[in-house]
Design goal:
CATH architecture of the largest domain: 2-Layer Sandwich
Structural class: alpha+beta
Bound molecules: ligand 2P0
Low-confidence stretches: 1-28
Radius of gyration: 20 Å
Number of helices: 8
Largest sheet: 8 strands, mixed
CATH topology of the largest domain: Ribosomal Protein S5, domain 2
Helix content: 25-40%
CATH class of the largest domain: Alpha Beta
Number of domains: 2
Distance between the termini: 26 Å
Strand content: 15-25%
Length: 357
């Protein structure tokens, strides 16, 4: 079957793609709210930089862990009586900026389903958005799944991942549980920039401890930060050129379940991403003094023999990874640490799924 697929977040550009699993089924539209749950993720090999802004294709591949404890549940109902899309976020009407981002994303699905119906979207995070924890990953993955189903589309995991990517790059990874790899792809049209599961959550049970150091919103979001780095950081080319080596090293660490290697590659990718961001002009400094203090604290713990490492995203929180048997002792120590406001502990999570299906 040949179907029309809108590939831009901002402009109406179409391409023809063969989607054998796609079915258009208008009977689903306007009857029941379809709900989906997708979990958040953190990258061990980081995504920073876009190849094509309109298609939202990443300049580098990435490898992530799915977080069981953090998820978004989103319900979508296409309603012929609605004049425009409505969005409730955590029980409150969304801002016009948020509504319009979701509306542009729904346009992709409407185009695919051959529909013009507006939708009611209700999205709830089970974690505090103000903590600066990435919510766009789980939000756009849940929205891609719920909205495509509500529109009567049956997309494969790969097709859903491409769709979610157009909402947010990290969302492409949140369709899958366990350990996930996002491919940067080679094609100009972005049709090979999708994520796939590497190993399920039970392959290597690890725990993630999120040390919240500050709940202040960051000044520069990832989307703008990435573009600033691409345009101004003298390290950008080296970052892109060295990314395949990091991905290969991470795949090897996972295949061998080599914790020391996992720690080294993850910290290397994290620090390299932050060096790239700091060398942008003006420099992007996502860390606080507490972030730096905790980073040294984790390294000291590892030097003393605890299998543990850190990673940091575009904000001041430290994500600490360890085997489950070490988790409660680390949390106990962190709880008394003056740099830590509170902690969230998570095991590795499952695939995104439609609820009640
Ligand atoms: C990551 N981050 O790999 C990296 C590390 C933040 C730091 O993916 O512009 O919100 O929507 O594609 O997905 C955050 O970037 O950016 C992110 P867009 P997104 O997890």
């Amino acid at each position: 079957m040949r179907a029309c697929f809108l590939i831009s977040r901002y402009s109406f550009i179409y391409f023809f793609i063969s989607l054998p699993m796609l079915q258009i089924n208008d009977v689903n539209m306007g009857i029941t709210m379809i709900k989906a749950r997708a979990h958040s993720n953190i990258a061990l090999v980081k995504y920073w930089g876009k190849k094509n802004i309109a298609l939202n294709t990443p300049a580098v591949g990435s490898i992530s862990l799915c977080l069981e404890a953090l998820y978004t549940e989103t319900g979508v109902l296409f309603d012929p009586l609605l004049e425009k899309d409505e969005l409730l976020l955590n029980g409150r009407p969304a801002t016009e900026k948020e509504r319009s981002r979701v509306s542009s994303f729904l346009d992709i699905i409407r185009r695919e389903a051959g529909s013009r119906q507006a939708a009611r979207v209700e999205s709830v995070n089970n974690f505090p958005t103000a903590a600066g924890l990435a919510s766009s990953a789980s939000a756009f993955a849940a929205l891609a799944l719920a909205a495509s189903r509500a529109a009567g589309l049956e997309l494969s995991g790969q097709e859903l991942s491409i769709l979610a990517r157009m909402g947010s790059g990290s969302a492409a990874r949140s369709l899958f549980g366990g350990f996930v790899e996002m491919h940067r792809g080679r094609r100009e049209d972005g049709r090979d920039a999708w994520a796939e599961p590497l190993y399920p959550a039970d392959y290597w049970p690890l725990q993630v401890i999120i040390a919240i150091t500050s709940e202040v919103q960051k000044k520069t979001g990832s989307t703008d930060g990435m573009e600033l780095s691409r345009r101004t950081s003298p390290y950008y080319r080296a970052w892109v050129d060295s990314s395949e080596d990091d991905l290969a090293a991470m795949r090897a660490a996972l295949a061998e379940k080599d914790f020391q290697k996992l720690a080294e590659v993850s910290e290397f990718s994290c620090l390299k991403m932050h060096a790239l961001a700091m060398a942008s002009n003006p420099g992007l400094i996502y860390w606080s003094a507490a972030t730096l203090e905790l980073l040294h604290w984790v390294r000291t713990l590892r030097e003393q023999g605890t299998p543990v490492f850190f990673t940091i995203d575009a904000g001041p929180q430290l994500k600490i990874i360890c085997p489950p048997s070490y988790s409660s002792a680390i949390v106990d120590q962190l709880s008394g640490h003056p740099a830590v406001e509170r902690t969230i502990v998570s095991a590795l999570g499952p695939d995104a799924r439609v609820l009640g299906a």
